[in-house]
Fold these 4 entries.
Entry 1:
Amino acid sequence: MIRKFLPFALSFFLIILVPFPLAAWQPEAGDTTATKIKLNVGADIVSRYLWRGTDFGNSPAIQPTLSLSVGNLEFGTWGSMATNISFREIDLFVKYSYKNLSLIFTDYYIPILNGLPASPDTRFFTYNDEKTAHSLEASVLWRGNESFPLWVLGGVFFYGNDKRWGVDPHRDNNEETYYSTYLEAGYTLKIKENNVDVFTAFTPFAGAYGGHAGFVNVGITGYRKIKITDALELPIKASLMFNPLTSNAFFVLGITI
């Protein structure tokens, strides 16, 4: 019952909250900044693609991003390609932010996992719930301010390829959605000019993140900018992460360009 209730609860949450900020956000007369379109283009090069306590691709990966922001709305795409061609992902997302709160809808398209087809039909435009390589997630993110840099994230898969995880024979045989849920909390520390994130994450039941409830992503990420020239800095990050539920540990280096 809890699995089936979560996506409906999130949907209700979105329905209640979205109209309020949309009505409340009215640019003042003469304020042109609120309607400007902002373009973000970038990429990360990482020694491993670690996502929510799981290693995808078992190799270095290239991860480009492209997004457009208009006022409080952001539309974008993000991807990851393993250098050993064993994993490929393209995500589309819509994000609405109001003050400290963000409501996010993400379409994860993963046709290849561990070098094999990740679903019965890996074509991009196939959205049949029982065959698609797409997984749809609704999530809510609350992020504090500089004086209290805490964040809390909750996300639930509610449609698509959140199936066949091998932990519930009944669900696997009937290709039922697991409603895999991820709950994360973190805090950002300032050390001189650098930031350090500490975080912990939990899944409340079996699904995409593991065979039962437990902590799946506990760790620390440090950020630093290396000065190349007076006008150019290279952002780097290093993460030490543990997955207590699967007894795994990871140490990852990333470079942003």
Entry 2:
Amino acid sequence: MRVTMIHAVAGSIHPTQMAFRDEFPDAELVNVMDDSLLADYGDNITAKLRRRMSQLICYCADHGADAVGLACSVYAPVVESARNLVDIPVLSSYEAVMDDAVSYGSRIGIIASVAATLRDSKYYLQKAAEQRGTTVEPQPLLDENLMRLMSIDGQEEFRQSLAEAVQRMAPGVDAILLSQFSMATALPHLREITNVPLLSAPHSSARRFKELLTVA
């Protein structure tokens, strides 16, 4: 079973590998990266960018993928139309984790380092809640400094800064959503400092792919 993940930043590859080792080790994970997808993104998906992502999804489907996932959160809107182009499962970075989030309660904390990701996370969380016939109260936290800290070797400052954000948020929420794939590298450390459920987008995606591709 081959799952191909499409990335727009190198920092999301390792968290994805970690998540699949934890949740779906039998999968053959293939990572496809195009960092121009983020470099060329402004604050909206142009027709040209939508076409490029759709072509990448089709490329993966034509080259042996049994399923395709997007690790780049800003391209989630492309998934719905792309599903009409291929005959394999396609998941956005949000789909599985938002379904998981609404099962924990109504107060969901969301941590992001990019404003567009935070905006889209709130939208898709509300959408997941509506599909379940329930309501949520997103508790957003934007820390743009996290993006810079992610690139520092060792990432100790990144983990510490993210831990501080989690600790501030934990008393007022039922669960905390780490909205970007790259944040999942800090998950083992974060679980040591809080009992509040922590939701990792790559882990949720890996579990969903296992459900979709594993025959009972």
Entry 3:
Amino acid sequence: MRAIVYPAKLSGSQVAPASKSSMQRACAAALLHQGQTNIFNPGHSNDDLAALEVIQNLGAIVTKHADHIHISSKGVMPIGSSMNCGESGLGIRMFTPIASLSQQQILIEGKGSLVKRPMHFFDEILPKLGVQIKSNNGYLPISIQGPLKTADITVDGSLSSQFLTGLLMAFAAAGAANQTIKVNQLKSKPYIDLTLAVLKHFGWEVNHINHEEFSFKDRSSVKDTIEYTVEGDWSGAAFLLVAGAIAGPITVKGLQMDSTQADKAVMQALSSANASIQIEQDTITIGAGLNGLQAFEFDATDCPDLFPPLVALASICKGVSVIKGVDRLSHKESDRGLTLQTEFAKLGVTILLEGDIMKIEGVDQIKANTVFSQHDHRIAMACGVAALRATGPIEITEAEAINKSYTDFFNHLQHLGAKVDIQ
């Protein structure tokens, strides 16, 4: 699919998409909850759909209704010998320990960029928990056979917090009241806070000491039917908010200001860039400040998914913006540091990579050109946002990559007044 986005002035309001981080965790918790779950405001991105398919493969019964999804589960009881996580990094890292609760041998597969993402973590950790594992030299496909037996363990949290999310959920469901998980160099701590919040909603309480040692309490009594409402997605909404700052003002609705989502930190960057921001409950109105957008500095170590929208923002800020956390970008859907540098160079924007630091030199106008999504949803959206301030239309090839997380992205831009041709 090719998307051609034209320069535009935006106005109006848009409801933020559903959070896939919240949705996928809710699906996992619903599988582990032996009872009924109703999920309201469900997401429908490819990653969300992959999570629903996985929990069905692991024994849950999923029924879709007009305004919610009903999930009935008796726990992890696989109905087949395999599960496919699509291209979801969270999915593979979260559901592998959960699937290990079963004693059935399961082949875990993925597609696209996921087959190139390292899973050596499981080769090291799962055998310590009584799980037999055979991987493709640390990559997919992975064959596992449990059941997982909880034990005191120490894990490396420097690559991704998603591995820890899976272990926390599996340990909680297994009743690990006397065991602890210690973590070294944990990254993306807010995502772990989200995991703990979802577990608590479903009756499992996990305590921690400075995100370095996690302990488990016996599950509290819960109703047979649990209702969960998926939050608005700060990751996807970051692109709308940046679009508002550079081409608005617009209003974005449906975001929780007290959310534990890591990408809520986009508000700090937008404020530093001198964007005009008005907040009323779950409504944010955003545009450029009176003196225009200024270069900013921001640490994205704990929220690396913000790099693409913030590069689009920095591209039209006056001066050189500095974003820290480049080391977190190499194992995404693409090597995002290099991908952002390559694709934005086509738009006349110079990006310098200096170790863990990215420097973006702002320009007066983005250059019209053709860019390649690199099959990365956030690169496609970043280029789409930058196009709003270009000298002419920007064509994005392989633009269907957006379906991984934000299927309605181009439709939402159109709703706000942008002209987008889809071919």
Entry 4:
Amino acid sequence: MAILHGLSPAAVESSRVLEVACGDGANLVPMAYAVPSAEFVGFDLAHAPVERGQQRIGELGLRNIRLFQADLLAADRELGQFDFIIAHGLYAWAPEPVRDRLLALCSELLAGHGVAFISYNTMPGGHVRTMLREMMQLGAEGVDSLEEQVRAGLQFLHFVCEARPADDPLRAMMENQLQRIENRSLAATRHDEMSECYHPARFLDFVHHARRHGLQYLCESGLPGPNDPCYREPVQKALEEMAEGDLLKLEQLLDCLRMRGYRETLLCRAERAVRRDFPVEQLRRLSIASPAAAEPGKAPGATAFVLPGGIRMESNHPGVTALLRELADAWPHAIAVSKLEPRLAEAGLGLEQDGAAWLIRLAIAKMIELRAWSPPLAHGITERPRASACSRQEGAMRGRATTLLHTTAVFEDAKARHLLGLLDGTRDRSDLITAMSREFPDEPPAELAEGIERGLGFFQAAGMLES
């Protein structure tokens, strides 16, 4: 996103990355594994999670990451300069001195073209969460155990919902929020809904706070989705008139239409010149990838491209169709925009004409993703496939793992979990069948072999097999 907006951040492969309130390093450790030439530092106030993270690091033998216990209020310039700073889930959950010190530290430690990622709960959607938190805390009054407080709070929320009419809009909204809460772990709910400290911030207030520390709003961590009101022409025109040319005010107005309750904002130094027009020369510095599968479209001559989550797009433009087919064949690898440019030009999509706009539209539609680095992914499924040690480590603990693309792959099936653990690069198909048969003796070998191929295809497409 920084490159798209005209900045020249450090290359991912040679960057220094800091995470404030890193917990057990669940975010940093997979990065350090995937990018061994970069340096990663994280600290957290809680000692126990840091110890767990240090144990993971030791098991993986990583030498480019350091986790330690520290208080943000005591952190200073001795940590050095960083190209990227991450603070996820901290700003809205901390008292004012901590929030202020976070932005001051970003100002002190951020490199010249560095980028800081700050996630926070925001208004007006934050009002909804505040209302539910207050109800949960009221329902948990007098309960001593933290675990029981969560259960009592949720029980009271259910009671309030069920007491309202079936067709009541407030009930529908509360039921939606209840589903969100109950899909999360007990520990996360205890932190988010039962903790005393919760300060959702208006976007403008957050940006003005950052400005006091010499930082400016760069953008959000991703492009707005295809259904965002910012793309609806009548809405856009009316809001632009109200904003009177003020981009920040326009974003705040849009948050009202979005009923936005959460942001992942990127900040950079105030002296940096930020471009909002996505310059072509910057786009040429990126690569693009697409997991979309091609199938016949419903319209005559059209091709449909379907993402794993079910999002579907049809096109009868020869250039767009050829581009997406080529990217689908390359997945999970990306192709540099500069390498694609001659073929885009042949299809009438030269970057200096309509090609750049087409690529941005495809990114907004989620049909392609933009990348600024190349993960160490396997080129196909080899004779002795190897999943990343980091993925295998996580998979042994739970039914999900972080991929080399830094996404999360979920695999609840016990056979898939066991197969992942076997993929250390020492076993061919015959060895894998033998090992799986020992673990699942009641399964016919033919079915195990079929399941192994399915599993390998899943791990390859997810970006878990390494070169």
